[in-house]
Amino acid sequence: MKPHTKQRIAFSFLFLCTLLVILPVGLILIIIIKNGLPALSWQFLTDIPRAGMREGGIFPAIIGTFYLVLGAIIFALPIGVMCAIYLNEYTKENIFSRLIRLAIINLAGIPSVVYGLFGMALFVMFFKFGTSILSGALTLGIMILPVIITSTQEALRSVPKEFREVSFSLGISKWQTIKRVVLPCAFPGIITGAILGIGRAAGETAPLLFTVAAFYLPRLPRSIFDQVMAIPYHLYVISTQIPNIPEKIRYGTALVLVILVLGINLFAIILRIKLRRKQRW
């Protein structure tokens, strides 16, 4: 067989695999948009649930999701970035550093329901934070830590070593080099990882089920120790626990969640492209 023919067969196979991934996702999006678009309105986005969640909107769930994601990123971003700096800039390649990297990889593969049980045992019961925004945000923060650490490490590795060497040759300390040279150059990758972590946190249900989510709470939280409604858990509730609910409310809630997650990921891509264009290396 000629090399050109082999290449065409390989490209055709790869294209087929791509279609097998894209088509189901596209079909799901079409179904959600078709059935959920009639429910979207200003009232749906800004009203509280009424009549046993069969009427009204999802405003408390939107606000609750925002609080949880904000708390998770405030907790996870500084710790994740500092951990990545330590692993990439200070540790030498040894058994200890390999064990830490292996632990980070394993944390990324743990199911979210396990994080939920861990958060319930540690924050809800041991620290006695109760089912609250604080417990939920800390649990989500731990869950997205591997994403932030990994993306920050890749961003730090992408900075040329020559930048560090030139800085050291000028008599600048290692920390000042990291602070003034390495981190600004790695900033696009760090921000991208943080936003992708936000996208994952916004779409999770299991951790919220054990740590914070309320079945029905038609008011906004007053403190970090209050329960909240969240869009993923609210979607689960109205899809499985509420009989005779209009179909458009279910699909409308799903559409809002999809728009939120896709919007966050799209924002991360656009921001990364713009920041990288500003770099001159």
Write the element-wise H/E pattern from the N-terminal end onward: HHEEHHHHHHHHH
What topology, given as strand order, has the largest sheet? 1-2
For the record, what CATH class applies? Mainly Alpha
Kindly estimate the percentage of residues that lie in beta strands according to DSSP. under 5%
CATH architecture descriptor: Orthogonal Bundle
Radius of gyration: 23 Å
Shape: globular
- What is the H level of CATH, i.e. the homologous superfamily? MetI-like
The DSSP helix count reads 11
Highlighted features:
281 residues; MetI-like fold; mainly alpha; two-stranded antiparallel sheet
Summarize the structure in words.
- The chain has 281 residues and is an all-alpha fold.
- The protein has one domain (57-278): MetI-like (MetI-like fold, Orthogonal Bundle).
- 76% of the residues lie in helices and 1% in strands.
- The protein has eleven helices and two strands.
- The protein has a two-stranded antiparallel ribbon.
- Helix 3 crosses helix 6 and helix 4 packs across helix 6 (133-157).
- The radius of gyration is 23 Å and the shape is globular.
- The model has no long low-confidence stretch (mean pLDDT 87).
Gist?
This protein is mainly alpha-helical and 281 residues long. The protein is 76% helix and 1% strand. It has helices at 3-36, 42-46, 59-90, 95-109, 112-126, 133-157, 161-169, 174-203, 206-211, 231-240, 247-278, and strands spanning 49-50, 55-56.
Q: What's the arrangement of secondary structure elements?
A:
Blueprint: H1 3-36, H2 42-46, E1 49-50, E2 55-56, H3 59-90, H4 95-109, H5 112-126, H6 133-157, H7 161-169, H8 174-203, H9 206-211, H10 231-240, H11 247-278
Antiparallel strand pairs: 1-2
